Amino acid sequence: MAKSGQSFNKKEKEKHRAKQRQEKAEKMEERKANTKKGKSLDEMMAYIDENGNISSTPPDPSKRREINIEDIEIGFPKYDPGEEDPVRTGIVSFFNETKGFGFIKDLQTGESIFVHVNQLLERVIENNKVSFEVERGPKGLNAVNVKKVQ
To answer: How do residues 29-78 score in pLDDT, each as one tens digit?
Structure first.
């Protein structure tokens, strides 16, 4: 007796592939039947309302506002160092004396600012209230001229 050329597993895989092809063909026919061809221009049109939101209805001409082009700012406004007080106050949130660095929590902005031991005018420990100036370093803001405040 000779063995059959196809095993049970091969027959099952072939049935599975045929079933998938059939399902794919059915889905394709269903998509073709449900598509609306040739939408009108009005259906494809989108409008922007007075608040800048996209809508399907045309805007109301009575709510139109004139905008001066020079008033539009793209991006961030340039930093002006003269706007704020150069001396800030904060609390030392972390300081490692063995490594020589720490962080100060600025009381105005709430940001954490790096401080190095070389920039200290007095010895500080954690939770000390300090005054300092801010300099921009290669990796962000650095505190300089740091001294304790009583």
So the answer is: 988 887 766 677 777 889 888 778 888 888 888 887 788 888 887 887 66
> Distances in Å between the alpha carbon of 107 and those of 11, 81, 95, 117, 141?
74, 18, 17, 21, 15
Hey, what domains does the chain have and what are their CATH numbers?
81-148 (2.40.50.140)
Can you tell me the distance from the alpha carbon of 22 to that of 20, in angstroms, rounded to the nearest whole number?
5
Do residues 104 and 120 lie in contact, with contact meaning Cβ atoms separated by under 8 Å? no
- Tell me the pLDDT of the chain averaged across its residues: 86
- Token pair belonging to 124: 């500080």
Q: Would you give the end-to-end CA distance of the chain in angstroms?
A: 103
Residue 140 has which token pair? 């962000």
Higher-pLDDT residue of 17 and 137 is: 17
- The residue type found at 127 is N
Print burial letters for 98-114: b (CB count within 10 Å at least 16), e (below 16). eeeebbbebeeeeeebe
pLDDT at 144 over 80: yes
Helix (H) or strand (E) holding 95: strand 87-96
